[in-house]
Batch of 2 targets.
Target 1
Amino acid sequence: MSIVPKETIEVIAQSIGINNLSHDVALAVAPDVEYRMRQIMQEAIKCMRHSKRTTLTADDVDAALNLKNVEPIYGFASGGPLRFKRAVGHRDLFYIDDKDVDLKDVIEASLPKAPLDTAVTCHWLAIEGVQPAIPENAPVEVISAPSDVKKHEQKDDNLPVDIKLPVKHVLSRELQLYFDKVAELTLSESDSVLFKEALVSLATDSGLHPLVPYFTCFIADEVSRGLNNFPLLFALMRVVSSLLQNPHIQIEPYLHQLMPSVVTCLVAKRLGTRLADNHWELRDFTAHLVASICKRFGHVYSNLQSRLTKTLLNAFLDPKKALTQHYGAIQGLGALGPNVVRLLLLPNLETYMQLLEPEMLLEKQKNELKRHEAWRVYGALLVSVYMID
C-alpha cells in the first residue's frame, strides 16, 4: 500500500482544477506518485553527497528534477533546510514558517557586494623551511613570540585557530663546519689537493642540500667583490660545476642567483689583474658551464636559454665592449651549439669582421696586447664556425 494517501491526490487534483476525480483513480495514482517522489529524492540525495553535505536542500531537489528533465519548482531557492511547523490543532498538518518581508525594506536596502569570480592561484607556503612574508600567508603581526610554538587566535565565531610560526632554517654543527672548511679552501687554498677532494665531495655527497642557499650566496658575494682575484674566480666556478653535477641536490630554485655570477665570469671586461692570469681558460670553462646549465635545466625554465643568448649577443654586437668581452660572448654562444651559431653568429659575422680586422693588423694596432686579444677572438670565431660543418 502506498504511503501517499488518496486524499492527498484528491487535494492536488482540486488545486489544479480537477474537482470530480473519483476515489478509485486517486487510489491508483497514489503508488505512481510515491514512486516518482522516491526517484527524485534518491537523485537529490546523490547531489547532496556529491556536494559533500549532510543536509538536503531545495537546490538538491532542483538538480534532481533537472537530471530527470523535469521543470524545477520555483519559489524555493533557499540554500538552507526548510523549517516546517505543525499547525495548531492538527496532528498531521505542517506548514513552512516564512518570514514576512516588507517590500519597502527590500527596496531601501543597500546592494550586496558583487561576488568574486572563481579562480585558482598558487603561492609559496615555505621556501627552504622559511615562510615568505606575502599576503597569502599569515602576517608576522599575528604570530606570537619566537619562544612559542603555536598561537591560538579567536575568529569572529569564537572558534580557536592555530597559527604555526615560520620554520627557521637551522644547520647542524657538522654542516656548518663543512661549509666553513669548503669556503676557506676556496678562498685561500684552491691549488691544494684537499680542495680537489672537496670538489669531489660537493659533486657526490647526498647530504648537502641544506647548504645550497649558503653556497649560492657565498659564490655571488665573492664573485662581485673578487673580479681582480683570478684564482678565486676559477675556484668559485669549479664549485658551481661540482654543485651542478651533484644528483642529490635540487639546485633549480637557486639558478636565478647563480646565473649572474656565472655570466660575469664569462663576459666581464677584466678577470684578474696580472698578465699571467689565464682568463681565457676561465672564460672557456665558464662557457661550457653555461651550456651544461641550459642543457640540463632548459626544460624547467623555458626562457633560460633565450635570455642568456640575448645577453651574450648584446655583448658580442656592442662595439664599445672590450675584445675580452667579445671573446666570452662568442665562446658562450658557440658552446650552446651549432644552431645558435648559425642563427646568431653567422648573420653578424661580416659586420663584426670589419671591426675586428683593424685590431689584428700591426700597421693599425700598435698595442701588442690588443692585437693578441683580437687574434684570440678571431680564433674563437673560427672554432665556432667550423662547428657547423
Target 2
Amino acid sequence: MVAVLRNTTYHVLVLLIVTARLVHGGDYIRPPAGRSLFVSLSDNHSKNTPQQVHISLAGDAKMRISWITDATTPSIVKYGKRQGTLDALANGTSSSYKYIIYKSGQIHDVVIGPLETNTTYYYKCGLDSNPEYSFRTPPAQFPIDFAVSGDLGQTEWTKSTLQHIGKTGYDVLLLPGDLSYADFYQPCWDSFGRLVEPLASQRPWMVSQGNHELERIPLVHSERFTAYNARWHMPFEESGSDSNLFYSFDVAGVHVIMLGSYTDFGPDSSQYKWLESDLKKVDRKRTPWLFAVVHAPWYNSNTAHQGENESTLMRESMEDLLFNARVDLVFAGHVHAYERFTRVYKQDANKCGPVHITIGDGGNREGLATKYKDPQPNISMFREASFGHGQLRVVNASHAKWTWYRNDNAQPDTTWFMSLALDPTCAQSNRV
C-alpha cells in the first residue's frame, strides 16, 4: 500500500518553481515537488516473506541477492534458468542493526553464481513457500544500457521516474547517492526498499552514498552510514576496497568507479590510495570505457551547493587521477537538477578530460534546484531543473549515446561520446 504524505511547504514550492525563470526558452513549466510516499507491507505479508529484494553485481559472473525478513529465516537462494525449476542453491549470511530505538529486520546477503551473461534467471529467497523472482544478467559484450538516476527519494515524482526507467530495458542502474531520504527515520528505509523492489529485484542496482545516508547524531548515534552499509552491500571486497563507500566493477567492456564524497579523499586516505591502485589495473583494451560516480558534483553552475568541501576539495584532490586515467564520464547527484558539461579539466574545457553530468533529479521530496548562475559558463552545455533520468547506451568500444529524459516526456537532451581510450589525440604521452 502506498500512502501519500502531504506537506504545506509544497504549496510554496509550486509558486516558486512556476514563476522561476526558465533556463531555456519556451513555454515549459517546471513541475513542483511531489507529495511524499510511504510504501507499507501488503496485508498478506508474513514475517517469513522476503521484502525489499534487490540485486547487485558481485564480481566476475556473480550476483548478490539481498532481502529482509521480519523473522529469522534461512539465508539461502535457490535459482535456475527455467521458471519453476530452481536446481542451484547458494548460502549466505544475515545481520541486523539498531538505530536508537529502531531495530531492523533480518538483512540477508547471498552471492550466487557463476552465471551466464545476458540470461534470465529465476530465484527464490529463503523458504520454498516464498514467491519466485527473476532477473536478467548483463551482456558480456557491447551494446550495454545503463539507467542513471540520483537523489531518488520517495515521492510521486520518484514513482514516475521509476516507471520511466522500467520501460527502457536497461541492463544496469547507476545511482549516485541519496537513496531513501530516510533522514534518521529508519522505517523510511523499509519503505524505499519496497518502492524500488519491482525494478531492483530484476536488474542490478549499483549505488553510492550521499549526504542523506550519513544519519549521524552526535552523542546519540555516532556511527555514519549505518543503514546504508547494512542494507546496500556493494562489491567493495571484490574490488580490493576496504570500505563499502567506494568500490569498482567491470561490466561488458566498461569499468565503473564508485567514489565516496563523504569519506576521506585526501592523498593520504584509504580511498585515494585505493583509487590510484584501481586505475592502474584498468586495461582499456578489455574495458575501453571508464566511468566514475560521485555524489557531490565537481562541476556545477547551479547556485545550490556551491563551495562545499565534498565538491571542491575532492576535485582538487582526485581530478588529476581521473584525468590521467582518461576517465570518459563522471556522474554526480546532490544538486536537484540536470546539467551536462563539455569535456573539462581544471575548470576549463579540455578535449581529454571527462564529461561531467549532474543528475540529481530523481524525484526527492526537497524539490528542484531552480536557480543557475547567469551567464551560463562556456563549459556548461545543457542545464535544466526538471525531474527525470538518464540513459547511456554504450554502442561499441568507441561510441556511446547519452540521453536525458524529463519525466513529462518533453524534448530530451541527447548527445554522443567517443571513448578517450580510442582517441589518438589523448594518448599516454599527453598526460600531465
